[in-house]
Amino acid sequence: MLRDNEKSVIKSETGRRPGVSACCDMTGKQPKAGRNGLAQELFSVYTWSADAAVGVRLPEHVNMRGGFMNKEEFIRLTQEKPLLLDGAMGSNLLLAGMPRGVCSEQWILEHPEVVEKLQRDYMEAGSQVVYAPTFMANRISMDNMGLADQVERFNREISKISRRAVGDRILVAGDMTTCGKMLEPGGPISYNELFDAYAEQIRYLADAGVDFIIGETLLYEEEALVLLDAAASVTDMAVCCSFTVEGDGTMPFGGNVVDAVANLELMGAAAAGINCSMGPDQALAVVGNMSERLSIPVIAKLNAGMPDISDTGEVVYSMDADRFAYYMEKLLDAGASVVGGCCGTTPAYIAALKKVIDRKTADKNGSDRKAADKTAADREM
Q1: Are the beta carbons of 44 and 159 closer than 8 angstroms?
Q2: Which residues of 357-372 are buried (b: 16+ CB within 10 A; e: fewer)?
Q3: Quick one: which of 35, 68, 164, 369 has the fewest CB in 10 Å?
Q4: How many angstroms separate the CA atoms of 187 and 207, rounded?
């Protein structure tokens, strides 16, 4: 959290400050009303076929007409079994031919078939959520590339690509990230600038029909708080946040992730945790500590181990799918309940993780049935 002597510095001229939502978004419109009470329609059952993940069954009007899930509805998803996210996007785009250094959002719009196939493959592997690759499509980041005038187009059109790929069989999250700069006074970005950039992106994503918002690969606590504050000014949609961290939980711009996620819960996050950073073998302590502090779901979306450069100049990750799933199971045991893969992972990694989740769920259900049978027998005695 901000120290007391810093809070007044990032307070804006209009009175916005971390933890207090503005009454209007950057266009002056009133915040959108949330669509609460959809739980009975949205979450009737998890259904899985032998060959493909049907995932969360959504009525057609929920996504096609601008619906979304709120925090309570999102949390319900994780109560019966862990929620399985997708795997990497960026590393797979590079494998598909995207040059390094280009604007990935622009490349995606020029090659939509690559994302559609990848996200369908994730769905078939078992993902219940895919992230629409709108990662850096905020005004601050796009301005650095000379593409600030494309922010609306990127968010709307890329969200449509993801929805086209998976339909209403699974969920689509609107993906956001850091702008890579510190807030004042330690950096060049004012609270208002970041708030407005995030609120704008969230508004476009909400209008495009995503189911919830994910802020990932965040670098420090305050930018996540601004993201949550901006979201609250625009929508009642569930917002999840995950940070990139060192093995001891230290975040790149300072602070510890365990303290940060606890504050995000107080600010209304639907789930919080870590992504990228490292392989699951290095994240056990951090995930366990977050689980002890949080009552909301814990996110663990890790890399396929550590990267190395091959003799041919390719990035190679240290874990295959089975080894990745082996260590992800340990994170599930430590309390993670929203899980997936980041850099280096593919649909094969998600399929291996799904097997782990299915086995653990079957074991749990079997134990629950035995306990219920024993209780019933004891009552009859």
Answers
A1: no
A2: beeeeeeeeeeeeeee
A3: 369
A4: 31
Instruction: Collapse the DSSP code of 217 into the 3-class scheme (helix H, G, I; strand E, B; otherwise coil) and give the result.
Output: strand
Q: Yes or no: say if 258 and 289 are a contact pair by the CB < 8 Å rule.
A: yes
Provide the total of helices (H) and of strands (E) in the chain, helices listed first. Answer: 15, 12
Question: What are the tens digits of pLDDT across the range 172-190?
Answer: 999 999 999 999 999 999 9
Q: How far apart are CA 45 and CA 49, in angstroms?
A: 13
Residues 6+ away with beta carbon under 8 Å from 303:
88, 276, 277, 278, 279, 317, 341, 342, 343, 344, 345
The pTM for the full model equals: 0.81
CA distance 376 to 244: 47
Phi, psi of 157 (to 5 degrees): -75, -40
Pairing of strands 53-56, 46-48: antiparallel
CA 286 to chain centre: 18
How many other C-beta atoms can be found within 10 angstroms of the C-beta atom of residue 106? 16
pLDDT, one tens digit per residue, over 203-216 is: 999 999 999 999 99
Q: Where do we find the tokens 């929805």?
A: 163
Provide, rounded to the nearest whole percent, the portion of the chain with pLDDT above 90. Answer: 75
Tokens of 324: 């990745």
